[in-house]
Design brief:
Structural class: alpha/beta
Shape: globular
Number of domains: 2
Strand content: 5-15%
Radius of gyration: 18 Å
CATH architecture of the largest domain: 3-Layer(aba) Sandwich
CATH class of the largest domain: Alpha Beta
Helix content: 25-40%
Number of strands: 7
Bound molecules: zinc ion
Length: about 240
């Protein structure tokens, strides 16, 4: 029975993998139900998503004068080297991410992961390893899937880099970050991740759907650097961004 189940899982992964990689497979646009091209979002709907403004911190992507680190990063530099966020967490992308995450819309992973390309149109430095932000086991059981893993899977295919979804574990549950103040967020996620193997000298890309303060990504990057990572880049689809102008 166990064997049968794991074979089914492999088969469904293979099917999804081949669909994800078939450029000729035209999909319906997630937003307008028109022709979404091979990535599942049409050009017009893609143009409706709010890009991260040029005036952002080069480290954590928070509001800052263009090219200058924000006050938080000047005070204490996060463990990740750069947080890449192509879009602001705003309508309609927030609705898409919500549907993907809580509506178990696994089919949306491919279209959403295509949005990472906006941040690095020429292709960023290829990571040695792609790692999803892990969910706590009980949260995973409740939700049924880890949205970060699905995005990381598609990201790894696009970057032609290996995915490792067993390297990191979340050892305790944490209250949702959105309800907490910035200082509480950092305390909330301290020591929450364990990296099980050494990653000496590797450049690691960590993937999540949304960044609020960046505290979760900071904590995971710190755990990876403790295990020898040479560089950690955090990638999210959207960042919560409050313009101060
Ligand atoms: Zn559309
Ligand atoms: Zn910053």
């Amino acid at each position: 029975m166990e064997n049968h189940r794991s074979r089914l899982a492999v088969l469904s992964n293979l099917t999804r993998h081949s669909l994800d990689n078939c450029a000729l497979f035209v999909q319906t646009c997630l937003l307008c139900a028109g022709d979404g091209g091979s990535d599942g979002l049409c050009t017009a709907c893609r143009a409706d998503l709010a890009p991260l403004p040029a005036a952002h911190c080069p480290i954590c992507a928070d509001t800052a004068p263009a090219g200058l680190p924000c006050p938080h990063c000047r005070r204490r530099r996060p463990a990740f080297d750069t947080l890449h966020a192509p879009f602001i967490y705003a309508w309609p992308l927030n609705a898409l991410i919500h549907a993907f995450k809580y509506g178990r819309r696994l089919d949306m992973a491919h279209a959403l992961s295509s949005l990472f390309a906006r941040e690095a149109p020429d292709g960023p430095v290829r990571p040695d390893l792609v790692v999803p932000v892990p969910l706590f086991a009980a949260r995973l059981a409740e939700r049924g899937f880890n949205q970060s893993l699905e995005l990381a899977r598609a990201f790894a295919v696009r970057m032609a880099a290996p995915l490792d979804d067993t390297l990191c574990v979340r050892v305790r549950n944490t209250p949702p970050q959105a309800r907490l103040e910035r200082a509480e967020r950092a305390r909330n996620v301290a020591d929450v991740f364990v990296v099980k193997r050494a990653v000496t000298g590797l450049a690691v890309a960590i993937i999540d759907d949304v960044a609020t303060s960046g505290a979760t990504l900071d904590a995971l990057a710190a755990a990876l650097k403790k295990q020898g990572a040479h560089r950690v880049d955090a990638w999210v689809l959207a960042r919560v961004f409050y313009s101060k102008t």
